[in-house]
DNA sequence: AGAGGTTACATTGACGCCAATGTATCGACA
DNA sequence: TGTCGATACATTGGCGTCAATGTAACCTCT
């Protein structure tokens, strides 16, 4: 018999856990000299370049303006390149630089190890279930891989 | 057969969904003229007053310094009261004011409705499963109700 | 009593993030 | 061609958050 929980309880627990995990993640990635959002962006661009800014924002779940600001800093730091799209000059295509690609590789490893550590208490089935539930919750705002 | 997912995929999905939900939550609560963190704090104090600052931070999942700053603003706004503990003069006991209690009631209702709306796509069993998983993930940093 | 380590809270500087808004480009249509 | 709404990105002001650190009270042990 599943203990019945209210939606508010779920929200509280979700919010609390999310914040705790974010702190731990930042702590782990800090050892690589980078913050979670920055590494997340660079790794995502490396994975699916060239990528438009708005697509990138959608993929990582942040607002477009936030992505713009963060990307700006990453470009200044020489990790990403902006390139105006030939077909649509409003669009910006993002790619990693050589330096960005190298760091992305290091950070991906750190990211994966941090994730394994944080989700270690879950069984494989729980992880799969969790992902299903998360995708259900964010079904409205899903990148192209939606299907 | 559960699709196997990597820890990094879980982390990505978790982070993305958390940010999306936070945005939606803020949007809903904005209609009540309050932000999610502020309402969350006031409601939590109303629920378990008197409560120490650090306990409160743990309950909502934020760092102690963050709680201090937020509480400061809420005290200035007349929603919360600080009171130095008689037994341990380092400690601060928090309570809601009359105004804070009234608003907490309104916000609790808004909070609950927002949560119901956001978690509406989940079945009762999924919600229960989700809470189990979340508690497992944050088992290290659990308030006194730890069990 | 008082020295030294510990605990509870406050403060600070920097960052991530948002909503709202501004600017340039695009596309359709008169 | 020029106009108008829509789209893609950039900018801005403000909040929430953190880690790191400071200050005061507590506790133990001598």
UniProtKB/TrEMBL annotation, chains A, B:
It holds the Pfam family MarR_2. Signal peptide: none annotated. Residues 7-139 form the HTH marR-type domain. GO terms for biological process: response to stress. GO terms for molecular function: DNA binding; DNA-binding transcription factor activity. This is MarR family transcriptional regulator. Keywords: DNA-binding, Transcription, Transcription regulation. Coiled coil: none annotated. InterPro entries: HTH_MarR-typ, MarR/SlyA-like, Tscrpt_reg_MarR-type_CS, WH-like_DNA-bd_sf, WH_DNA-bd_sf.
